[in-house]
Amino acid sequence: MSEVHQNTSAKLPKNTSQIRRVDVVVVGGGIAGKACALGLAQLGLQTIQIAPDLEQTIAVPQGDQWGQRIYAFSPSTQKLLAHLQIWDAIDHGRMQPVRDMRIFGDRGEKQDELHLSAFEAGTPQLAWIGESNVIEHTLDQASRFQNKLERISDAVENIQVDWDGVSLHLKNGSAVHAQLVIAADGANSPIRSELGISTKEESYSQSAVVANWICSNAHLETAYQWFLPGGDIVAMLPLPNKQVSMVWSTSPENAAELLKLDQAAWADTFSRIAGGAIVTQLGELRLNSAPAAFPLRRIRASRFIGPEENPKIVLIGDAAHVMHPLAGQGLNLGLRDVATLLNILSKRESFRLPNDKVLLRRYERQRQGDTSALLWLTDKLKKLFSASSSTERQLRNWGLGMVNRSHFIKRRLIERALGDADFE
Ligand SMILES: Cc1cc2nc3c(=O)[nH]c(=O)nc-3n(C[C@H](O)[C@H](O)[C@H](O)COP(=O)(O)OP(=O)(O)OC[C@H]3O[C@@H](n4cnc5c(N)ncnc54)[C@H](O)[C@@H]3O)c2cc1C
Questions:
Q1: Contacts of 308 (CB under 8 A, 6+ apart)
Q2: What top-level class would CATH report for the domain 93-129+203-296+387-418?
Q3: 236 contacts: CB under 8 Å, gap ≥ 6
Q4: Mean pLDDT across 71-80
Q5: Which residues are within 8 A (CB) of 222 and not within 5 positions of it... i.e. 6 or more apart?
Q6: Where are the domains of the chain?
Q7: In testing the pocket of ligand 1, which one of 36, 96, 212, 318 has its CB within 8 Å of the most ligand atoms?
Q8: CB-based contact 244:270 (threshold 8 Å)
Q9: Number of H helices, E strands in the chain
Q10: When you count CB atoms within 10 A of the terminal residue's CB, does the N or C end of the chain come out lower?
């Protein structure tokens, strides 16, 4: 996308009757965009979703084949998907409930452990682990049956914000006009940059290496996370059929080395790190997917809606915020954006259009606290566990044990991990 125009008709097709007019356009075809488009259409708003990859059929992995993109889904996400009436349609044979989380410090001492338990928290599970494709496939199916939702497989080239909405010009030469535009166009959001919305960005100088493993020991429905000396973090998330999904955050150089390892070299690596605790816990690990690496960074947009004087645009998902995956919360946070937006639009006063400034400001206000708190927490944890001084090392390990002994803090932590989708 190359240009944004404010209050100008310079780029409009000559024959303005060619422009389709709808209530809302959602730009972006990731999970946040798909969930948002479906939810808006379910509210009765005439919705168009636009993204270059919408025509692609999402391949649902079958049998022993498991997808590469595995996510931890929080109860707030479950609540949204249930609200969209797709939670029960998901193949639950491919979703693993998490009953316990065990987080280990980097000194290898027994007391440096934080244990969060669903049983202690009085909840059936703390999260679910599953494949991105399973959720996307189910969203695609539900969208096909939604007659208020149309999908266009194309890229947005430029937008014009007007007094009554936004005109979007697509690569194929066509144009659409919407009262409200939802930017769900990812971490590099072209809409965000074209609107001139500034961001606070920081590279973590780390990549996450992900891979699925079959383990010889039972994983006990537990998500494990080891902080390693030097700042690496290894998470092993449980999947059905004695599998675990690994997320290893490490330097880009080490990530490149890890991608080259064969099965024997991986076994050797696991036996050496975390004092051998990974192997003690999970047994022998057999690779069950090709490892892949993703660069890690933190991004926060300065605004979650368009320009003050004429917003008309809402940012959701990674277009608004990107965080370190150590807490497995990036997408969950994006889906809470969706829940909040749907909640505000569904309860709007009858005299307000979906693009009413008051509603958009309400959305931005409601999303600021949750976003800031999670970005702050993940960032501080990441930095505390990367610091090399002996004081910080003692502090972080002592902190894990201290939190573990405090039922009050543990409860608050679990409440934050569970999140709360904004439905009443
Ligand atoms: C290693 C790793 C592990 C993670 N684990 C977890 C986890 O366990 N739990 C969790 O909640 N989160 C996790 N995350 C975060 C999660 O991956 C992201 O937050 C999530 O994928 C963002 O979804 P999105 O829909 O906002 O954006 P995206 O999935 O990036 O989608 C953006 C969409 O916009 C489209 N687009 C871009 N430009 C245009 C244009 N000009 N016109 C039209 N369309 C356009 C793209 O084609 C794409 O469809 C993890 C991240 C990483 C890196």
A1: none
A2: alpha beta
A3: 213, 219, 223, 224, 225, 244, 245, 246, 278, 281, 282
A4: 96
A5: 98, 99, 100, 101, 102, 238
A6: 3-59+135-200+298-385, 93-129+203-296+387-418
A7: 318
A8: no
A9: 12, 20
A10: C
Atom of ligand 1 nearest to the CA of 296: 53
**Which residue reads 């934080």 in tokens?**
114
The residue type at 71: Y
CA pair distance 420, 83, nearest whole angstrom: 13
Q: pLDDT band at 269, cuts 50/70/90?
A: very high
118 contacts 410 by C-beta, under 8 angstroms: no
Distance 32 CA to ligand 1 centre (A): 8
Q: Which two tokens stand for residue 169?
A: 């010009």
Enter the tokens of residue 147. 């007659």
For residue 277, count CB atoms less than 10 angstroms from its CB and return exposed for 0-12, middle for 13-18, buried for 19 or more: middle
Q: For 225, phi and psi rounded to 5 degrees? A: -145, 125
β-bridge partners, 207: 250, 295
Token pair listed for 284: 């022998």
User: In whole angstroms, what is the distance from residue 72 CA to residue 132 CA?
Assistant: 10
Distance 252 CA to ligand 1 centre (A): 20
User: What was the pLDDT predicted at 384?
Assistant: 79
| Secondary structure of residue 11 in the 3-state scheme | coil
Unique residue bearing structure tokens 């959001």: 189
> CA torsion 164→305→2→180, rounded to 10°?
-30
Residue type, 40: L
In CATH, 3-59+135-200+298-385 is 3.60.110.10:
no
- Phi, psi of 334, rounded to the nearest 5 degrees: -60, -35
Residue pair 419/332 in contact (Cβ under 8 Å)? The answer is: yes
Q: Is the CB of 223 under 6 A from ligand 1?
A: no
294 Cβ closer than 6 Å to some ligand 1 atom: yes
Q: CA dihedral defined by 305, 325, 218, 138, rounded to 10 degrees?
A: 30
